[in-house]
Amino acid sequence: MSTSSYYIEASHNQRNHIGEYICGDVFLSKRIKGQNRVLSVLSDGMGHGVKANILATLTSTMALNFCEEHRDAQTIAQIIMDTLPICSERHTSYSTFTIIDIDNGHANILEYDNPRCLIMRGGNVYEPDWTCLLLDNVDKEGRSQEIKTCSFVPMKEDRIIYISDGITQSGMGSDKFPFGWQRENYVKFVQDTILNERYISATKLSQRVVDMAHSNDNYCSKDDTSCGVIYFRNPRKLIIATGPPIDISQDKEYVDKVRNFNGYKIISGATTAEIFSREMNQEIIDDYDNIDPSLPPSSTMKGVDLVTEGVLTLNKVEIMLNNNNDFSKNLNNGPADKIISMLMDSDEIHILVGTKINQAHLDPTMPIEIEIRRTIVKKIADLLEKKFMKEVIIEYL
Q1: Does 137 reside within a domain?
Q2: How far apart are CA 340 and CA 334, in angstroms?
Q3: Among 75, 80, 221, 282, which is most buried by a count of CB atoms within 10 Å?
Q4: Cα separation of 47 and 51, whole Å?
Q5: What angle (nearest 5°) sits at the alpha carbon of residue 321, between those of residues 315 and 325?
Q6: CA–CA separation, 87 vs 389, rounded Å?
Q7: Which residues of 211-234 are buried (b: 16+ CB within 10 A; e: fewer)?
Q8: Is residue 267 included in any domain, yes or no?
Q9: Residues 176, 276: one domain?
Q10: What dihedral do alpha carbons 226, 5, 349, 388 form, nearest 10°?
Q11: What does the angle CA 195 – CA 201 – CA 204 come to, to the nearest 5 degrees?
Q12: pTM for the whole thing?
């Protein structure tokens, strides 16, 4: 969400315990439109595999729902602790958790038995005032009854880094880190990374931390390893124009909206590209260097970042967004891949949708899975908002 001073980027990265196909750590995040609010939860289930994942999912789901209802930290923690079972052998909770609630310019953090959140103000560690809450009737089985909480006002370029203990315990038993990586080394790594790359994204920073922990374990993770990052920064923007306006008199306005936009610019659709070429007096040049055999090739035009075919390409973008959660390593150079790459690198996404009906899309010989432009755009917007926590604005012309 953007405010007058910053945008909140929330992302995470994980590696499973070696030999497991499911992670015992669970992240859940939610951006609440209209409330200037981001919620993010990390829960670490005891052990690893399916059982740990189920318990962590239960914890993180409860935490997210209760937090969204504006319940106070003590109430949220008490309900979770009253609900979670206790390990009969270890006498500890079956899962730990970290809850972060960014609400109208305030950051509220609640932690139970996870490593303490690291708050970076630029390249320096920022230490807020932490409060210890004592819960009722949870220590009789031997587990901790302490919940730590803090609240502070974030500044632009602040970062909140929150992890499972697979990070700080990585490398345990090795010659280099006999007692594990530990907080001191982890904090130093984060500081050095930010100092070397001041504007590193939340996605890349969380990936770097997890990859380093993975290398500490000689690339065989001995625990579920997770890192989440919330980054307060200037927003990155993108605009997509697809389809001709319903009335030709709107063509100039349509083109001007894109021409004057400060961010990535994508034109999707042959007819749309012709309108931009005419109004901007620029030539469209086909690009045959990076081809996806399932799609028409992309093109280049001075003044925009990418020109692609319309419905077929957007349909593939929607399929890729629906079928994948992480695009950090598996993108190619086809037109849909290029759009995905720009979408993932953007925060505020504006989509201009021309509403003139293209008769080609009414052809009964066209494949049944290809839907009209407006339906595809709505699906893409829904995936970007709910799955990838982007802000999407759709405007019809």
Answers
A1: yes
A2: 10
A3: 80
A4: 8
A5: 165
A6: 35
A7: ebbbebbeeebbbbbbbbbbbbbe
A8: yes
A9: no
A10: 20
A11: 90
A12: 0.82
DSSP symbols for 19-66: T-SS-SEEEEEEEETTTTEEEEEEEEESSSSHHHHHHHHHHHHHHHHH
**209 plus 297 within the same structural domain:** no
Copy the structure tokens of residue 282. 């620029």
The token duo for 36 is: 């200037």
How far, in Å, CA of 250 to CA of 256, rounded? 10
At 62, give phi and psi (nearest 5°).
-60, -45
Backbone angles phi, psi at 118, to 5 degrees: -105, 125
Domain-embedded: residue 257: yes
User: What is the domain count for the chain?
Assistant: 2
Q: Which domain holds residue 72?
A: 7-233
Q: What is the rounded end-to-end Cα distance, in angstroms, of the chain?
A: 25
CA 175 distance to own-chain centroid? 35
- Do 324 and 254 lie in a common domain? yes
Judge whether 144 lies within some domain. Answer: yes
Spell out the per-residue pLDDT of the chain, length 397, in tens. Answer: 444 468 899 999 999 999 999 999 999 999 887 777 899 999 998 888 898 899 899 999 988 988 888 777 778 877 877 777 665 555 555 788 999 999 988 999 999 889 999 999 989 999 999 998 877 655 545 556 788 999 999 999 999 999 999 999 999 999 999 999 999 999 999 999 999 999 999 989 999 999 999 999 999 999 999 999 999 999 999 999 999 998 888 999 999 999 999 999 999 999 999 999 999 999 999 888 767 889 999 999 999 999 999 999 999 999 999 998 777 667 888 999 999 999 998 999 999 998 876 655 555 555 544 458 889 999 999 999 988 889 899 999 8
User: 217 and 249 share a domain?
Assistant: no
CA 5 to chain centroid, in Å, comes to: 20
